[in-house]
Write a structure and sequence with these properties.
84% of the residues lie in helices and 0% in strands. It is an all-alpha fold. Helix 2 runs antiparallel to helix 3.
């Protein structure tokens, strides 16, 4: 994700972030399946999706922490 996308992501509420997380997890599953079958065109996409998942999880955790304060 680009920096501008991360800023927009942090403005979303937790339910929208969870929806994006599910979307990225689904994409990661499909990419891993393509890798196993041998049809993956861009193997670097797996790394990008994993990074995006981590960024979303971090943003969700930040929202939860801010809500507790």
């Amino acid at each position: 994700m680009k920096i501008s996308e991360l800023k927009e992501l942090r403005l979303l509420d937790i339910s929208e972030m969870n929806a994006k997380l599910i979307e990225f997890k689904s994409e990661l599953f499909n990419l891993r399946f393509q890798l196993a079958v041998g049809q993956l065109a861009n193997p670097m996409r797996i790394r990008e999706v994993k990074k995006s998942i981590a960024q979303i999880k971090t943003a969700i955790k930040e929202h939860e922490i801010m809500k507790l304060k």
